Amino acid sequence: MTAAAPDVITIKLERTFETMDANQDGYLDWTDYQQLADRYIKAYKLAKDDRRARALQTFCQIYWLELLRHAGVDGDRLTKDQFITANRLAVIDTSRLNVTEGGGHAIFDVIDVDGDNEISKDEFARFLRDVWKSDAPDAMDMFTKLDTDGDGSISRHEFIRAVREHFLSNDPEAPGSLFFGRV
Ligand SMILES: [Ca+2]
Ligand SMILES: [Ca+2]
Ligand SMILES: [Ca+2]
């Protein structure tokens, strides 16, 4: 890697911050993470007491606490720089929460509606349409990238690996780096 190589992880985290900061005041707070959980819960019409909804909600709560702890802030909100630093530390510190595995499994359990441990093309299309409101014609290209063994569905293993890459890979061509849009 040369000194001029862009830091892909930072670019991805900046993009995540901008997407998550719904009211665009330059801070993330708990309500932004609550909205992220709600986005899935509403899209999949999960009941409040549904275990998948509770797992996602609980994951978001602990994840948020871990970001605050790693940012070392006293208050309850994060600037973009604090968010990026905290995320980099939180994903490698698995003492309280394994962000990539815990979050990946909680989201996979929601997307895999029929519970066969695979995300089918239809299930992935619904995820894009109902959670991310994306009907871009090339959005399904992501499916092909995430289905690394090309068997026509995204296994739990393929999905978790993509989430890990999203947080930890500096390779812009790695499938996980395409998960929230090309860098
Ligand atoms: Ca905000
Ligand atoms: Ca399935
Ligand atoms: Ca596959």
From TrEMBL:
CDD domains (alphabetical): EFh (cd00051)
PROSITE patterns referenced in this protein's UniProt entry, alphabetically: EF_HAND_1, EF_HAND_2
One Pfam family in the UniProt entry: EF-hand_7
InterPro entries: EF-hand-dom_pair, EF_Hand_1_Ca_BS, EF_hand_dom
Species in which this protein is naturally found: Streptomyces goshikiensis
Domain EF-hand, chain residue ranges per copy: 8-43, 99-133, 134-169
Protein name: EF-hand domain-containing protein
Highest taxon listed in the record's lineage: Bacteria
